[in-house]
Design a protein that fits this description.
The chain is an alpha/beta fold. The chain has helices at about 1-15, 35-50, 70-80, 95-100, 110-120, 120-130, 170-180, 195-200, 210-215, 240-245, 250-280, 295-300, 300-305, 310-320; strands at about 25-30, 55-60, 85-90, 135-150, 165-170, 185, 205, 225-240, 285-290.
């Protein structure tokens, strides 16, 4: 019933106004709830696709992990079972080596720095790495700045992380980052985090303010430290099987609409970050804003040594850091 309900709602939203009936419908998966910036951006993309194709092309968005958690949704997209997926870079780390570099802690100085890098030739280069895995990147979205939150105490310094248990995405980079900080990583699906903090299986997790807010994690983890260890892009990708079925004209419509959805997503994202921080503070969360990041950054040496192993990857790191 849940799948059918989502299908009808999304179909109505995206296919309603343009002339003609949908000849091709692309199904797009997202782990976030309806109303989240990434979900709304893909909906806007769907509206543009419908308008520009005269209603021939439609996109149906399935939020809230309706079609599976990110790892499963990515695999289904690779096989063409799902047409499109919006996913964080973490689950791609073991699939596309280039994504590990932009997932390294503190590789980006700010969200503005990340956006400039991903909008340029480095972003195009990283996108090519997906093609060998039956995925074509349509756009890079903003995954925000990820920070630590927990149920035990405010984290004021790197020493406060010692021995604590944090959920991380299923990515070797994330696991190694936590080890370098003296904490224990517990990879688990996003949907299990709330109950795991509530029952003490883990002490906390790490994510951006909107995710911390909309997931309800702030209800069980009242301490949030803005260390911003990861400023991660996210990928909106289409299955190459689905892409190859489109005519060149329709490919251009889909590609341009995806590109045009990026500023929509970013505007919604920035507003949501501000809104979410205010909401959780009002709910009693203690946000630690002024933190010396230098010890955290210095602790990442072993992580960089492990993943930046070739001249090509070292050059990629240098080019990212040199981007102004």
């Amino acid at each position: 019933m849940k799948l059918t309900k989502t299908f009808l709602i999304c179909g109505t939203i995206l296919a309603g106004s343009a002339a003609g009936a949908c000849e091709i419908t692309l199904r797009s998966a997202d782990t976030h709830p309806d109303g989240y910036p990434t979900v709304e951006a893909v909906k806007r993309m769907g509206e543009m696709v419908s308008e520009r194709s005269g209603g021939r092309l439609c996109i149906e968005v399935f939020p809230a992990s309706t079609l599976g958690e990110e790892k499963d949704a990515i695999e289904q997209t690779q096989f063409g079972v799902i047409d499109m997926v919006r996913a964080s870079f973490g689950p791609f780390n073991n699939l596309v080596p280039e994504t590990q570099i932009v997932s390294l802690p503190y590789i980006f100085r700010s969200s503005e720095h990340m956006r400039k890098v991903m909008d340029g030739p480095i972003g195009e280069e990283i996108a090519k790495g997906f093609e060998a895995h039956d995925l074509k990147v349509l756009a890079f979205y903003d995954g925000g700045a990820r920070s630590f939150y927990n149920s035990q105490k405010p984290i004021q310094s790197i020493d406060d992380l010692e021995g604590m248990k944090f959920r991380v995405m299923q990515s070797d980079v994330f696991v190694d980052m936590m080890a370098a900080l003296g904490a224990n990583a517990t990879p688990m699906p996003y949907g299990e985090v709330y109950s795991s903090i509530q029952t003490g299986v883990i002490d906390g997790a790490e994510n951006n303010p909107p995710s911390y807010d909309t997931s309800g994690h702030f209800e069980v983890a009242k301490y949030y430290t803005l260390d911003e260890h990861l400023i991660m892009p996210e990928a909106l990708a289409i299955s190459t099987m689905s892409w190859d079925k489109l005519s060149p004209e329709d490919q251009e419509i889909v590609a341009q609409a995806a590109k045009d959805s990026v500023p929509v997503m970013r505007e919604l994202w920035d507003a949501k970050v501000t809104e979410s921080e205010a909401k959780v503070e009002e709910a009693g969360v203690e946000i630690v804003r002024d933190i010396d990041k230098t010890p955290f950054i210095e602790a990442m040496g072993p992580v960089y040594d492990k993943y930046v192993t070739t001249p090509e990857l070292k050059d990629l790191v240098a080019r990212i850091q040199a981007t102004e």
